Amino acid sequence: MARVVVDVMLKPEILDPQGKAVHGALPRLGFEGIADVRQGKRFELQVEGEVTEARLAEVHRMAETLLSNPVIEDFEVHVEGVASGKHRA
Amino acid sequence: MVTFPGSLDDVDAQRAARLGGHEAVPLWHGDHDLRGVDAVVLPGGFSYGDYLRCGAISRFSPVMAEVIDAAGRGLPVLGICNGFQVLCESHLLPGALIRNDHRRFVCRDQRLRIENTGTPWTRSYTQGEEITVVLKNGEGSYVADEATLDRLEGEGRVVARYLDGNPNGSLRDIAGISNAAGNVVGLMPHPEHAVEDLCGPGTDGLGFFTSLAATVLA
Questions:
Q1: Span B19-37, average pLDDT
Q2: B2-217: which CATH topology?
Q3: pLDDT tens digits, B158-217
Q4: pTM of this prediction exceeds 0.90
Q5: What is the ipTM of this complex?
Q6: Can you list the domains of chain A with their CATH numbers?
Q7: Long-range contacts formed by A37-40: CB under 8 A, 24+ apart
Q8: A17, B100: Cβ pair inside 8 Å?
Q9: 20 to 30 A from B164, CA-CA: which of A3, A58, B101, B179?
Q10: Would I find Lipid biosynthesis among this entry's keywords (chain A) (predicted)?
Q11: Which of residues 157-216 of B touch A (CB under 8 A)?
């Protein structure tokens, strides 16, 4: 079984108050030199069988239908290794 | 009145509808028909625990398929707070609601200006009327791209705007909008919590529910 990862991030022009809160906390903890923080979501999909082009296209449809809201978010899909050790996608 | 798992204000909204002169019909998120209602209210709360994004899971519930279909045929639909988020996720209304810019939950009496009295939900008000109702949200900041905001303002689809300061970072102080046809309205503040003198900031919210009587009976 392969793992397909969908990363969802707020579009650059959308305010990210959570990222700002994290950014504000870093210097208080002594971590310096971070110019900005943006917080996103990561979905790991365990895909049964082969990760074909058609399967990936379907993951794209999942991402734009449910996993992200295209009005405020962008997403990226990538295939990450294999759990069964058969082959690397 | 639709109840989703996690809805909070469905019972208050039912009460407000009755005070507005209506029969309140409870609908469940799993229902596949709307039982012949004349209008639908999507109440506030945290439907499906706000998992994924506010309103994102609710939008795919069986009852919403019916609501989306009926809204397209002109059925009056009002989404309050979480209901507004569901309407945006359903693409019945443009834009989206994101976390408050100041990162705190806001709960207060809020003054609004009613800017569109042409919808089935706002006919009881006069153009420019200023009202005070309850506002309570954590993710109530309305955002849309500039072109969408210009279109909403140009077409008179901003139904209500915040007065006395922006409580959550909503672009152009927008508190509520309608779809192009006007039958679907989304509102972040809660008129259903301002319908009786005994509790809440007054009765300014009742107009959203009496407006409907004029519409449906007309």
A1: 96
A2: Rossmann fold (3.40.50)
A3: 999 999 999 999 999 999 999 999 999 999 999 999 999 998 899 999 999 999 877 665
A4: yes
A5: 0.86
A6: 2-13+40-82 (3.30.1280.10)
A7: A38/A9, A38/A10, A39/A10, A40/A7, A40/A8, A40/A9, A40/A10
A8: yes
A9: B179
A10: no
A11: 169
